[in-house]
């Protein structure tokens, strides 16, 4: 097969929004599909979900082609109805006790040195799924020795659940703010801005050696001053790592994009966030919470973050 890249086309999310996209919102798809097919085969063989597929991430082809994926545990159905998210919103099944082992096996098969684990929100579980997160972290570490970053829900404000996950020793604890407080009722009505801040604050207070990370989507109607205040609030609770990306409508069922943020504005936000004291900032149209996560941690100078080898 030729190594010539395939013709540019809109990323999966973009195609659902409309025909008129600014030129910077186009991605070149990898020429060969072999590695991507291997990732899909491993996930299918082990009955695992990835947030890449479930959330219709625009970086799916790139990440799968690189031989990696972000594992989504606790099933593929969410108990919340966030209006930006494409993950299925149905009654979930009971957690699969064998899933942590299978995630670890997938990480081993894919030769991952840095693993990102996220989940759907499970408000139906007493601990929100924290014990499952903990079991998954421990299984990955035992089977592969890989570093594990987690991106957790808010566990309904259960701070003991947060403690349980943090105590398992992830190298990064990520919990996304997603948007500015004014838009919570519209964008994520079952979430609470202050509750999300408390999750990050709790990790910093109880496990100060674990960097905390959060992210925002831009383009939902927020103002610059509102974004700036969220960044200040994150710094006040000790958050040191930040991702800023363009919201893209996954399907007609989700909220429409209000504005496409130009690359130079993302660059400006990155410089401003670094000046506020964030140690690592990823900002750009296609930036997502787990995109280049290992490399991002390595840039903090911790000596922990790594890029995956395949």
Question: Could you characterize the architecture of this molecule?
Answer:
This protein is an alpha/beta fold and 310 residues long. The chain has one domain: TIM Barrel (Alpha-Beta Barrel). Helix content is 35%, strand content 12%. It has 11 helices and 8 strands. An 8-stranded mixed beta sheet has the order 1-2-3-4-5-6-7-8. Strand 7, helix 10 and strand 8 form a beta-alpha-beta unit. Helix 4 packs parallel to helix 5, helix 5 runs parallel beside helix 6 and helix 6 crosses helix 8. The longest helix has 15 residues. The protein starts with 33 loop residues before the first helix and ends in a 12-residue tail after the last helix. The N terminus is likely disordered.
Provide key terms for this protein:
alpha/beta, single chain, TIM Barrel, disordered N terminus, globular, 310 residues
Please outline what is shown here:
The chain is an alpha/beta fold. Helices cover 35% and strands 12% of the residues.
